[in-house]
Amino acid sequence: MKTIYLVRHCQAAGQEPEALLTEKGEVQAQELATFFAGFPIDRIISSPYHRAIATIRPFAQERGIVVEEDTRLVERVLSGVPRGDWFERLRDTFDDLALEFEGGESSLTAINRANSLLTEILADEHNNIVLVSHGCLLALLMKSIDDRFGFHDWEKLSNPDVFKLTCHLETREIVRIWS
């Protein structure tokens, strides 16, 4: 059995890759370190975006675990051009996983990217792994595991947020554990 903790980053000052955590986000990162203190984590993999790494850094430093960066955990790009209707179009991509906008990636492409990492993790020797990523990518990953997870669940995600993914042979169960 493997347990994978899916972590959405703490509150950030922006969406760009180098966006810093806000002051509140820094406090949240410390709270997250306290939250994970009793968990037997043996590997941490993060999006290379600053806000994701900064989210897990306090915990990683306390445990002496190196944070591995993996580009497959970067946020999903909805469109390469600014869209005033991005919210509605994002909703559409949860209904039509193949829908792709200019310069963006479809939900299916993002799901496949994240699932390629998940497949590798399931084959390695570590049993308790933290993955730190972004709201949309994590929501799509969870949708690929449980199709009931949808756009409205994405809307309810908090910064940070933590879900526990338990993987037994052929079954997977997702439970939100952050409150």
UniProtKB/TrEMBL annotation:
InterPro entries: His_Pase_superF_clade-1, His_PPase_superfam, PGM_Phosphatase. It holds the Pfam family His_Phos_1. One of its GO terms (cellular component) is cytoplasm. SMART domains: PGAM (SM00855). One of its GO terms (molecular function) is phosphatase activity. PANTHER family: BROAD-SPECIFICITY PHOSPHATASE YOR283W-RELATED, HISTIDINE PHOSPHATASE FAMILY PROTEIN-RELATED. This is Phosphoglycerate mutase. It comes from Brevibacillus formosus. The gene is gpm.
